[in-house]
Amino acid sequence: MDVIRQFKHQGTLFSASNLSYMLRFAELRGATAEQLLANTGLAVTDLYTNNAHIQVWQHLVFLDNLRQIIRESSLAIEIGLASNLAKIGLYGMGLMSSTTLWEAVEFGRRYMRTQYPFFETTLEIQNDTVVITLHEIFPLERFRTFIVENFLIDAAEIYRSLMLGEYRPTKYQHFELYFDFPEPDYFAAYKERLPELHFNQPANQFRFPAKILQQPIHTANPALVHFATTHCELEMARLGLFTNWIDHVRALVICHEGAYPSIQSLADQLCMSARTLTRKLTEVGLSFSELLEEARLKDAQNFLKNTQFRMDDIAVKLGYQNSANFIRAFYRWTGITPSEYRKSLEQPKHAFDAK
Predict the structure, then answer these.
(1) Residues 183, 101: one domain?
(2) What pLDDT is attached to residue 323?
(3) Other Cβ atoms within 10 Å of 136 Cβ, number
């Protein structure tokens, strides 16, 4: 069975923003919206309504149309290189408003499936290098090379823009792309415009030095991050990407500039009173303070695993007045100190990870 027919039975939804961006890109190359949207069941107006969504099969039909109309083997590269943060709306706002590259990466990974439904990612630090690996959720079959190329180049362009703090052409620094297929001939013409490339690799990956995780983003705006986060959380819930209600609540307990939400602000985001939220948490055997401790532990472990931040820096990011308070809290949570936890990461497996 063709992959498009398979997806028609799944009904998976995601944001229409990338398709609308590709539509505008193709129109500048002479294609018409009628040609590009043929057999998708979509009209142009469907793509520009508030919170516009499409199904995966519609996106794939669009890609078929696009590649038949614009017969360029390097089309995925061209679309990726033309990428910008504005094309992905409030998701892009959350990225560009993050304080550091690390926060942008975590925001991007947390909400990626609202924009890119084909992949999940894992993040590791290997020899002082951040390694973000793509894992396919769906079998992409004949669309695979195009989608992987486009996604990785798109991601590199967006994160390059974050590092620059502005949009302007420049040679890539820091970033490397790894592909698990042989190098196509058409990549040769783009070597000067792309990050360092590696083909025939074990996995599709995006890599950069761990030291730049602490790089500040010039467009940082904590208030806008909060706004974008709220939108993305609602989008995750709308698309059914949370498995249950408590997962949704946990996902909203996010630290911004050293401050976690109060129970009232959390309740406001969930469109209920603080009393109702307290009652609903009690019904599932939880309290708001337990949720805060869960979030702090998870964030602390992420910082200890994936950055070289000092204890003082981590304490501030988690809302503690000093590192001594943070160390005491971490010991209460895990029975070991943060330094001991970092050392335990050198072992193949350890027992202190947040679940």
Answers:
(1) yes
(2) 92
(3) 13
Average pLDDT value for residue range 84-91: 89
Residue 17 has which token pair? 């923003």
> How crowded is the C-beta side of 246, counted as CA atoms within 13 Å?
15
Domain hosting 16: range is 1-71
**Angle at CA of residue 174, ends 170 and 176, nearest 5°:** 100
In a domain, 22, yes or no: yes
Last-in-domain residue among 46, 71, 96: 71
- Distant-in-sequence, close-in-space partners of 138: CB < 8 Å, separation ≥ 6: 7, 12, 56, 117, 118
pLDDT digits (tens, 9 = 90+) for 193-241: 999 999 999 999 999 999 888 888 989 988 888 888 888 888 887 787 7
Say how many Å lie between the first and final Cα of the chain, rounded: 38
Q: Would residue 78 count as lying in a domain?
A: no
* Selection from 27, 100, 81 nearest residue 307 by Cα: 100
Mean pLDDT of the chain: 87
Exposure string for 81-103, b = 16+ CB within 10 A, e = fewer: bbbebebbbbbbbbbbbbbbbbb
For 99-145, what is each residue's pLDDT tens digit? 889 889 989 998 999 999 999 999 998 888 999 999 998 888 999 99
From CA 132, how far away is CA 54, in angstroms rounded? 27
Verify that 297 and 204 share a domain, yes or no. Answer: no
Residue 271's pLDDT is what? Answer: 74
| Token pair belonging to 92 | 């892009």
Residue type, 92: G
Structure tokens at 203: 């996995």
Do 47 and 115 lie in a common domain? no
Are 319 and 258 in contact by the 8 Å Cβ rule? The answer is yes
User: Do 212 and 258 sit in the same domain of this protein?
Assistant: no
Domain boundary among 241, 262, 297: 241
pTM above 0.90, yes or no: no
Same domain, 294 and 152: no
CA distances from 24 to 18, 48, 226 (A): 10, 12, 29
Beta strand ranges found along the chain (DSSP E): 13-15, 53-55, 119-126, 129-136, 176-178, 196-198, 205-209
Q: What 3-state class would DSSP assign to 91?
A: helix
